[in-house]
Design goal:
CBS domain (chains A, B), magnesium ion transmembrane transporter activity (chains A, B), 67% helix, membrane (chains A, B), homodimer, mainly alpha, three-stranded mixed β-sheet, MgtE N-terminal fold
């Protein structure tokens, strides 16, 4: 997209010039038009004009590419008649997503204004949670009866293809409308016209339940490299189809959620968003962190007498606790990756903790040795160095155990490991780090003073 | 997939029973067969037998679904003749990926054994780095000249479709083989037979350069919801096509890379992998962390005299530094998410740092107040509480500034913000946290003792 087109569109919207959408469609992708509409300069009034004055089929494409925020702004500005017209060009799963974000009263009014068959389909889709297979699926797909001849099949495909999202995968049903397999459009195009669909049906079809969580759905799609995944009920009737582009959106959602959670931010937060949201998403975790910081600090309080006699301990102890936190985070991130990809779970893989213990011993010995030598030289006391080495090894072993087991245990009890693992881990490595180092120092106190 | 089939396949491999692959194909997906081959029980000998004794077209599907590690094990076991036969059923981009991981001598020998046209195509693909558009693209796509009639087009599609990865998007070329647009198979199926491809061509086609980084490629595919993305050279000749399933693999790679990097692990590491790899990926960062831990600890050393007089400071200071680290991580994760999604950059959005400063003040005031009150009561000295509040506010402001600007600056100078941001941030919040708290304590020392 060139900047010229971008500026020109912005100008036209501001000066209320009706658009030649056929030409615009050729030079700008709807995703780029959305970027213009997302500009700060675009007021609600501009949006209202844009979505009322232009071609509805064109607007349907634009609205489909918009994010939730822009979609809800648009729908709040428009007359119901215009909304219904634009919806008539949009796939049902997108409409359901938009309706799902509306207040219940508005949603009902819009549903009542639609064709009975459309609103019935939408009510079914609206019955599923956004983050489940049912919430992701579209009802615009191609399904054919298995007894159709190739000729009949191709005629049917020509007829319904323009209204569907996926055409390369055709789902195959028996006459009681149960899913019996899938066919590849390639085969239909090149098959002997005398054959029926049944002859080219692959009965090995991957299906999911409408209630399956979207993260699991994404794993299934990725594992089998599917372009379309069938959602079926218990009697194996085809309810809808999930397409690859929706899965990519899920993957981005889950990814950003994991990144935010690992940083201690609950739920979605955008960097330019309102400060109130930021406080709401972050403050609770800071308060939880504060409690754990006090727990770690109280480990120090226990040994104030020791610190008073060897004040050098107060700076060395932060190295021990800090390195425990760092080493633990490394294990944690590898473990969370394994859990996210569905590669490890507590029951089968708990034994791998021994590898982390060994790693903690090796890394701890090396890092401890470096630290111990520097400490010995700096304070002129070799015993201080020995205490440092021992404490470092101990804390890095604990870090490895915690970094591996904490996320697996949280996963096992149904918690999101990305969200709360690091809090438990830091509490563990800080508290234990202070405790083991100052405890050892107290034990060897006569040698240190 | 049922466990029975899984067990039965494992059994058959172990007892060297040649498989009826037509039947197996119906009941097990190749991704599930890969899961069986990934079992610890499967030896190199088993793999060698499996990939020599069975139908090569079937084996090509299985090998395509295998991960890098299994692919390289298989290729190392097999005779070159068998490899070449299996390759003949695989898409070129997959073959190039496998060849790219082989030692150069082996790669050359295999290329020399292939058909000249195949090896020429593969040499071109091998010329691109794995993580670029050129490395991702396939050369199996449908491209048609714009002057073909619908009848000619359909005949051509029927002929080449079985060998291509994508069929719903058809790329359109002029007679000098430049890409002029794309056509939708739906339109070709339903168009008037008298029209030519040019009549239904959409000239607004999204293209990328073969050298574009895979993360950017993924952003383009997601933004425009593409099922196939065209890779072109400077004179707009079509070099290859990137498909949605390859983009999903990229997204998973980038996601897991970000998670590992944020935890301080450089490069890929699997939880069950060899301990040597773990040490190699983790130890360098631990050493870097150790240096920064010493920097923070030396801020404490400066004030050892103060701590000797008010030993309570030694436990409170860890709360100040720890909370700075926590608050900074929150800002950091929101910023990294924004950078990953391409939503923010240093030049345009540096002003948002003021929001983070404000957040630091507000959160700092509240968290500081709670901490200050507890400290005052615990040690019976209100001034100690006041020092705590001031230090907490100061450190949370610095945390907000650092958490926001450090990743943006690293991105700007071409570094991966997920990998090194947290090290700089922790150094900042630890060092500054100790410094401001102990510095203030020194200033108000007469009131504290």
């Amino acid at each position: 997209m060139e900047d010229k087109q971008y500026e020109s569109l912005l100008q036209k919207i501001k000066t209320r010039q009706t658009l030649n959408t056929d030409v615009l469609d050729e030079v700008m992708h709807s995703a780029d038009i959305v970027a213009v509409l997302d500009e700060d300069d675009i007021t609600d009034e501009d949006l209202k004009w844009f979505f009322s004055a232009n071609d509805k089929e064109f607007l349907a494409d634009v609205l489909e590419d918009a994010d939730d925020k822009l979609q809800s702004r648009v729908v709040h500005q428009l007359d119901y008649d215009d909304i219904i017209k634009i919806f008539s060009y949009m796939p049902k799963d997108e409409i359901a997503d938009i309706l799902g974000d509306l207040p219940i009263g508005q949603r009902k009014e819009l549903l009542n204004m639609m064709k009975a068959s459309d609103s019935r389909e939408l009510r079914v889709l609206l019955g599923y949670r956004d983050d489940t297979a049912g919430g992701l699926m579209t009802t615009e797909y191609i399904a054919l009866y298995q007894d159709l001849t190739m000729y009949q099949a191709l005629a049917k495909i020509r007829e319904i293809a323009p209204k569907t999202e996926v055409i390369s995968t055709i789902f195959v049903l028996n006459r009681t409308r149960q899913l019996v397999g899938w066919a590849d459009l390639r085969d239909i195009l090149s098959a002997d016209p005398g054959l029926t669909i049944e002859d080219i049906t692959d009965s090995h079809v991957i299906t999911v339940d409408p209630l399956m969580d979207q993260e699991e759905v994404a794993q299934v799609v990725r594992k089998y490299d599917l372009t379309a995944l069938a959602v079926v009920n218990r009697r194996h009737s085809l309810l809808g189809v999930i397409t690859a582009d929706d899965i990519m959106d899920v993957m981005v959602d889950e990814q950003t959620e994991d990144i935010l959670h690992m940083g201690g931010v609950s739920g979605q937060e955008e960097i330019g968003g309102p400060i109130g949201v930021s406080i709401k998403r972050r403050l609770p975790w800071l308060v939880v962190n504060l409690v754990t910081a006090f727990i770690a600090a109280s480990a120090i309080s226990l040994f104030e007498g020791v610190i008073e006699q060897v004040v050098a301990l107060s700076s060395i102890m932060t190295i021990i606790s800090g390195m425990g936190g760092n080493a633990g985070s490394q294990t944690l991130s590898v473990a969370i990756r394994g859990i996210t990809l569905g590669e490890i779970n507590l029951k089968e893989d708990w034994k791998l903790v021994f590898k982390e213990i060994l790693l903690g011993m090796l890394d701890g010995a090396l890092i401890g040795l470096i630290t111990g030598i520097i400490v010995s030289l700096r304070y002129g006391n070799a015993y201080l160095g020995v205490v440092t080495i021992m404490a470092m090894i101990g804390n890095l072993i604990i870090a490895g155990i915690g970094g591996y087991l904490i996320p697996l245990i949280l996963e096992k009890i149904g918690q999101d490991p990305a969200l709360s693992s690091s809090i438990f881990l830091t509490t563990l490595t800080d508290t234990f780090g202070f405790f083991i180092f100052l405890g050892l120092a107290k034990l060897f106190l006569p040698l240190l003073v």
